[in-house]
Amino acid sequence: MVRVTVPGEVRLAYNEARKTYKKLPPYDAINNSFEIIRIEYSENVIPEVRRLILHYFQLFSADMQAIISPHPQDPHSMTETAAFSKEDKQKVYKLYKKLWYWIHQGILTSVEGEKEQAELICALWKAWPDLKKEYKRIMTKVVKEWKKDVTKQKEDKGYLG
């Protein structure tokens, strides 16, 4: 178990854990994707890294909620869902399910030992490139839809209140 007491020690603690769990991704790579430097205090860096990665996955899945389950009276969800065909929404749901699989796997692993949690981090890291690619594709469509609406609002000088 490697203890982290101040943010600057995260790199040292993580690299120390890598000596035990050699398949963990390099510190700079995982930090660039998930900002593990934000870990401030922990008795053990491995559960904190697992928790932080899964927090990101929860944020990503929340972004997709409005697309796959829009509320008809919510302009936010109606704007975002408008960017997606029925086929695209199925792809969004597929990614949503993958993210929640990993989130629940992380919850299950949280009651296991450090070794299992390190193995999960390795598995998450291996899955990350494909998840990230699909997430970026989805969010690019969302951003384009919001930009389209902003442009339309600028052109329409009518009452907005």
Structure description:
- The protein has 161 residues and is mainly α.
- The chain has one domain (7-151).
- Helices cover 72% and strands 0% of the residues.
- The chain contains six helices and no strands.
- The chain has helices at residues 10-20, 27-34, 45-68, 75-81, 86-109, 114-155.
- The longest helix is centred in the last third of the chain and has 42 residues, at 114-155.
- Mean pLDDT is 88; it is low at 155-161.
Q: Uncertain spans, ≥5 residues at pLDDT below 50? A: 155-161
Rg over CA atoms, rounded to whole Å, is 19 Å
Strand tally: 0
**How many domains is the backbone divided into?**
1
Number of helices: 6
Regarding quaternary structure, how should these chains be classified? single chain
Give the H and E element order.
HHHHHH
Instruction: Bin the helical content.
Output: over 70%
Shape: elongated
Give the overall pLDDT as a whole number.
Answer: 88
Short characterization:
By secondary structure, this protein is mainly alpha-helical. 72% of the residues lie in helices and 0% in strands.
Itemize the secondary structure elements and their pairings:
Blueprint: H1 10-20, H2 27-34, H3 45-68, H4 75-81, H5 86-109, H6 114-155
Name a few traits of the molecule.
161 residues; mainly alpha; 6 helices; 0% strand; elongated; disordered C terminus
